[in-house]
Each structure stands twice: as structure tokens, then as C-alpha cells.
Design brief:
Layout (H helix, E strand, L loop, with lengths): L3 H26 L46 E5 L15 H11 L3 E6 L5 H12 L3 E6 L15 H7 L3 E4 L9 E5 L3 E5 L5 H5 L4 E6 L1 H15 L15 E4 L2 E8 L4 H10 L4 E6 L5 H12 L3 E6 L11 H5 L5 E3 L9 E5 L3 E5 L5 H5 L3 E7 L1 H17 L12
Parallel strand pairs: 2-3, 3-4, 10-11, 11-12
Antiparallel strand pairs: 1-7, 2-5, 5-6, 6-7, 8-9, 9-15, 10-13, 13-14, 14-15
Length: 403
């Protein structure tokens, strides 16, 4: 009869062998058979294969300018422009401008802004009032489309800010300071595709997302401070390892270009799509991203999208790449611009922000992107996607000859 010591030793060896085998399986496939290997809950790893949850069956009717009626997390707000309905800058009730002014008026300590363009006088007046009551208001903008355009007809809002003693800085370089984010009181971030302009809010299709989280706000504040220190574009250091968190079970990843290789991250999410990819693109000239979508479509993933009509048939645009692959892509029906930069994956992952899908946005500009894994938030974006897709039109095949 074997001794207890030898039996224990043999069991230990077998146990260690099983653990090693499970580790090999996990490294090869990502399958955690016993739940002993875990992915950090604070990150949204691009290589993760996601379990797809069906969207809510609750019927949703989008009201102009405001979040649809599906329950979303208490820490989030989502807004969309509706240029068919809310199109009068003189009456901004119910618009993104109204909701932004509400945030300005409620701010107590600081409003830090990195935003590309600006021509809304009511917003300028609200910022001056905030400054006068002791709020630290600062704005970083683009030197040409921001400060340089302040003397154009309808401009002068930056002059209002500086006359009141508010600090306004620009990037002073050829590439764009194209960000669109606001940080309120170090606790709340407002971002998305919307420029704070008449065109951006009353004529174009755009989105805005608000995240109430000091941790997320700190990610944007770090980037804002880098720009105050004169670090723009490729000169800005990457802190991507500090730019992920989880809010009530929702993984969130924040990315900044040029330093974080944003498009490469987005491509990895696309490559891991299991059921669907929906996108809205103002400018889409990045072939590797288009090719990743084309490959997922060939693998059976449902892919469709809408391009801004202007430029979509131009040299370098990737409309033809997707159209010739048999992917249902449309040109938008807005007589102004469809200005979104949005990808929705598997009815749950939302990728949005200021970054157009182009090499200049990825490699030269200052841009920001937020990625959230939340079906309730995704359904808001899916419905606005459906609205824009329905208003779009199929292309003229003659303009996109396929080999």
C-alpha cells in the first residue's frame, strides 16, 4: 500500500499539471475553464471576445435632441442633434446647446475645454458668467479653425472670453487640435462629435455623450494639462495604460491621438466583432479599417454604414472598398453634413469621439475617442444610426466601378 506522503506528492504533481494545462488552454484560446484566470475588470481589452447580449425589447422613440427612453446607467447621458426638427439657433430649447449650457451653469469649480470650433454666443455668455462667479474656465482650441476664425462673420466668441479674463490657448501648428471635450468640476466629461457651433448643433448630424466619473474626468484632465504645457499631437506622451476603468460593470477605454495609435485599437475591436458592425463616418479614408470591416463581413458579420456624401466618391475614400465587397453602405441624406464618427459593434460596444477614420486624424491631429461596452447605451446610438441610414440613399454604381 503506498504511503500517504507519496500519494500526496502524486496528487500535487497531478494538480500542478492540470493547472499548467489549463493555463496553456487559456493562453491559446482565452477560455477560462475554472474561472481562475481573469481579465482586469478595469480594462476593455481589444482582444477580448465578447458575449453578446440582445438589446432591450423596450420600444424606443427618439425625441429630437434628447436621450431616447430606454434606461441607461445613471452615470451617462446621450444626446443627438436633429437638424430636421431643431434647426433654429435663435431658439435652442431642447438642443445640445441647451444641455451644455445647463452643465456650465451648474459647474462649481472648473470648466476645462478642448474644442475645435466655437461660434455660439449663449455658450460664451454662460462661460463668462461662470468665470465671474469664480469658476476656473480655460479653453484650448485650434489656431486656424478656432482662434483664427474668431474674426469671421458670426464669430467673436473667443474675444468675449478673453475680454472677460478667461484663458484661451491654441496649438499653433499645421495639424489640427480637433478635440471636442469638456471637463466639469473634475467629475464629468462631455465629448462626442459635436463642434460647439451653429453648424455642429443645428445643421449637422452629431452626437454627444456625458460620463459622470471623476476617474474618467482625470484621464481627460491629464490630456488637457499636456496641451496647456504645449504638448500637442505626436509630442504628447501616451498614458494609455491609465485610460481604462469600469463603471457599474461597464468597461470604458479612453484613447487620444496621436500618441495612442487609436485606429489600431479600433481595428482590433472590429476584428473581434461577432454579429454586427454599424458605422457613421464623416471622413473614412483608412484602408486597414475598411479592410477589417470587409473581412468581418466575409466571415458572416452583418456590416453596414453611412458615409457623409461629400468626399465619399473622392480619391482615397473607402466607400468603394466596402460597396464593391457587397456591404450595404449609403451616402447620407443631410443637405449639410453627417458629421458623426461612430462605430457600434455587436449591439453593445460604442466607439465615438472626435476622430475621423483617417491617417491624419490618427497620426497628426489631437483627437479623443471613448469606447464603452454597454448595450443600453449602444441602443441609443443604434436608433440614431437607423434614423440616419433611413434618410440616406444608395450610391450611383457608375461612380464606384468594381473590378
Amino acid at each position: 500500500m503506498p504511503s500517504r506522503k507519496k500519494t500526496t506528492t502524486s496528487l500535487s504533481i497531478i494538480f500542478l499539471a492540470v493547472i499548467v494545462l489549463l493555463g496553456i488552454i487559456y493562453m491559446a484560446t482565452g477560455t477560462d475553464l475554472l474561472g481562475i484566470f481573469t481579465v482586469s475588470p478595469t480594462a476593455l481589452p481589444p482582444t477580448t471576445t465578447y458575449t453578446i447580449a440582445a438589446p432591450s425589447d423596450t420600444p424606443v422613440s427618439i425625441q429630437p435632441g434628447i436621450t431616447p427612453s430606454v434606461q441607461i446607467p445613471s452615470w451617462a447621458e446621450v444626446y443627438f442633434t436633429d437638424p430636421l426638427t431643431i434647426k433654429d439657433p435663435a431658439n435652442y430649447t431642447g438642443s445640445i446647446e441647451e444641455f451644455l449650457i445647463q452643465k456650465i451653469n451648474a459647474s462649481q469649480t472648473s470648466i476645462h475645454i478642448a474644442s475645435f470650433e466655437f461660434d455660439l454666443t449663449p455658450v460664451a455668455e454662460a462661460l463668462v458668467a461662470a468665470h465671474n462667479r469664480g469658476v476656473d474656465v480655460r479653453w484650448v482650441t485650434d489656431d486656424e479653425s478656432g482662434l483664427g476664425a474668431d474674426g469671421d462673420p458670426g464669430g467673436g466668441q473667443f474675444a468675449m472670453l478673453t475680454a472677460a479674463g478667461i484663458e484661451v490657448r491654441s496649438d499653433n501648428r499645421t495639424a489640427l487640435m480637433h478635440d471636442k471635450f469638456w471637463i466639469f468640476d473634475g467629475e464629468t466629461v462631455w465629448t462626442g462629435s459635436t463642434n460647439i457651433t451653429v453648424n455642429g448643433i443645428f445643421k449637422q448630424d452629431n452626437n454627444a455623450i456625458v460620463v459622470h466619473s471623476p476617474e474618467v474626468a482625470a484621464m481627460y484632465e491629464r490630456e488637457f494639462q499636456e496641451m496647456l504645457d504645449g504638448k500637442f499631437g505626436p509630442r504628447s506622451p501616451s498614458t494609455v495604460d491609465l485610460q481604462s476603468t469600469t463603471l457599474d460593470g461597464t468597461p470604458i477605454l479612453v484613447l487620444f491621438s496621436s500618441e495612442d495609435e487609436v485606429v489600431a485599437h479600433i481595428i482590433t475591436y472590429v476584428q473581434n466583432a461577432q454579429t454586427s458592425i454599424r458605422f457613421l463616418a464623416f471622413s473614412f479614408t483608412d484602408f486597414p479599417l475598411a479592410d477589417a470591416m470587409r473581412q468581418r463581413a466575409a466571415a458572416g458579420v452583418s456590416v453596414s454604414g453611412v458615409f457623409e456624401t461629400v468626399g465619399s466618391d473622392g480619391q482615397g475614400a473607402e466607400f468603394g472598398t466596402l460597396f464593391c465587397a457587397g456591404i450595404p453602405v449609403r451616402q447620407d441624406g443631410n443637405p449639410q453634413f453627417m458629421h458623426n464618427k461612430l462605430i457600434i459593434i455587436d449591439n453593445r460596444i460604442v466607439i465615438t469621439g472626435s476622430l475621423n477614420f483617417s491617417s491624419s486624424a490618427d497620426n497628426a491631429n489631437d483627437e479623443n475617442v471613448i469606447i464603452l461596452d454597454n448595450p443600453e447605451i449602444a441602443i441609443q446610438y443604434l436608433q440614431d444610426f437607423e434614423r440616419i441610414y433611413a434618410l440616406g440613399h444608395d450610391p450611383d454604381p457608375a461612380k464606384f466601378p468594381c473590378k
